[in-house]
Specification:
The protein is an alpha/beta fold. It is 54% helix and 9% strand. The N terminus and C terminus are likely disordered.
Length: 454
């Protein structure tokens, strides 16, 4: 039987994965099955390569299920075999199958349907970038051209690129969209030169109505690719079509790239994405849990993750996935205890820079109270809000758990501390000016000056 083309193998695997997602759910699929890749398919046997460290576990736990899903997708008689990623290609691969050439033309199907504007959580750090991305989706080439999205890894640049692509495909009236990374652009360019197909390569990119380029920092030190990219950029931009680029550095910091390209990157809008604040991190986790149908009974779980993981969205979601994985393997409920145990392994709590007493004294001084009033049972507004703020700062500046903080504030319970954290987070979101006051109290508590003022 003649072997199918590489695209057919990808289609076979896509059909199988669609069945798997429905059976195991999105969370389990992302944790254990997303890393699997199709190695070969001869019409009867689907060979799947897996990471070496999980091959045995995946094949034993999911082997029968994957086989059943493959049969539902592809027909009776289909068998699934497993090979590790390290050994794939040395066994089972038919000798007549050549390594597939890099795709010459990026396809619209490459856009991740989950990366949409609806699924993008807006916060203070990404509001401008989101608004700009939506604007170029609605009116490509008419304003904000080029759009340059700048952020460290894991803050949503690629999400916005895919959101633009998905939006234009859905509502762009037939406008063509091309997405690529600089790595793929380089590989396709080299292949085009060696296979005498440079004209096809140029048409693939230069004919796009919307050209989306990820990770332009990797143009550095690629002189020939940089030259071709320069002409591709000009061909699209100068004919009034849209260019959107992402980078982990600002244009002026790309010193290894020619000045003429840096100038073009800066000629439109440069939108920087900052790390999400606490409230945005909680919202991101809540949305991810809803999408994946993760049973989070206690909101404190998400708040604990958001407090521990602050660097980027990828790490934030990764922590949630890790907790869900432990839940699925141990049948333990997803609660604060499980979340703490998992996070202690991957994101251990940093020793606090202040003590609970430091925070209490600093807050009392700033609000003109005594520490005794702060710890009292009074619910008067002039005391209740400073008390809640002090609990928030204790959680931020010390390594104390919520139950420990509650005990230190007159024997209050975990739920009271949890409510205080939510209220402060809400006010920080609604009253940006509050951040400066909190910063001042933080400086006072961590400098050890509260004792001298009390």
């Amino acid at each position: 039987m003649a072997l199918p083309a590489h695209s057919e193998i990808a289609h076979v695997w896509s059909e199988t994965c669609a069945e798997l997602r429905q059976v195991v759910g999105e969370s389990i699929y992302e944790i254990w099955l997303a890393p699997l890749e199709p190695e070969s398919w001869d019409g009867h046997v689907l060979l799947v390569r897996t990471p070496e460290d999980t091959r045995t576990w995946v094949s034993e736990r999911f082997g029968v299920l994957i086989g059943d899903c493959a049969q539902r997708a592809l027909g009776e008689g289909v068998r699934v075999d497993f090979a590790s990623a390290e050994h794939a290609g040395r066994h089972h691969r038919p000798t007549q199958r050549a390594t597939p050439a890099p795709a010459l033309e990026p396809q619209a199907e490459a856009f991740n349907p989950r990366y949409s504007f609806n699924q993008f959580v807006i916060g203070e750090g990404n509001r401008l970038a989101h608004a700009a991305a939506l604007a170029v989706s609605e009116h490509p080439g008419q304003a904000l051209n080029p759009l340059f999205l700048h952020a460290p890894p894991g803050l949503g640049k690629t999400h916005l690129l895919h959101a633009i692509g998905n939006y234009v495909l859905a509502f762009g009236g037939g406008a063509s969209v091309r997405y690529t990374t600089i790595e793929s652009f380089t590989n396709n360019f080299v292949h085009a030169i060696t296979s005498n197909s440079l004209d096809r390569f140029k048409h693939a990119y230069r004919d796009a109505d919307v050209l989306l380029i990820d990770d332009v920092q990797f143009l550095a030190s690629k002189a020939k690719t940089e030259e071709e990219f320069f002409h591709t950029f000009n061909a699209v931009y100068e004919t009034g079509r849209q260019v959107v680029l992402t980078c982990d550095r600002l244009p002026r910091e790309l010193l290894a790239i020619e000045e003429r390209l840096r100038e073009r990157f800066e000629s439109g809008l440069v939108a920087t994405i900052s790390p999400p604040d606490f409230a945005t991190r909680v919202t991101i986790l809540r949305k991810r849990a809803a999408i994946d149908r993760v049973p989070i009974g206690d909101p404190a779980v998400l708040e604990l993750i958001a407090q521990r993981v602050t660097e980027n969205i990828r790490s934030l979601e990764g922590a949630l996935i890790r907790i869900v994985a432990h839940h699925s393997l141990t049948a333990r409920p997803i609660d604060v205890a499980l979340a703490t145990a998992v996070l202690d392994e991957i994101h251990p709590a940093v020793a606090g820079t202040a003590t609970i007493e430091d925070v209490q004294q600093a807050v009392a001084h700033v609000f003109g109270l005594t520490v005794e009033e702060l710890l009292s049972a009074s619910r008067a507004a002039r005391i209740a809000w400073p008390r809640q703020l002090a609990m928030h700062l204790c959680r931020e500046l010390t390594s104390a758990s919520m139950p420990a903080i509650g005990r230190a504030f007159g024997g209050r319970d975990h739920a009271t501390v949890h409510y205080a954290l939510r209220r402060v987070g809400g006010r920080l979101r609604d009253e940006p000016e509050l951040a400066s006051r909190i910063a001042a109290i933080t400086d006072l508590a961590t400098a050890g000056e509260a004792d001298r003022h009390d």
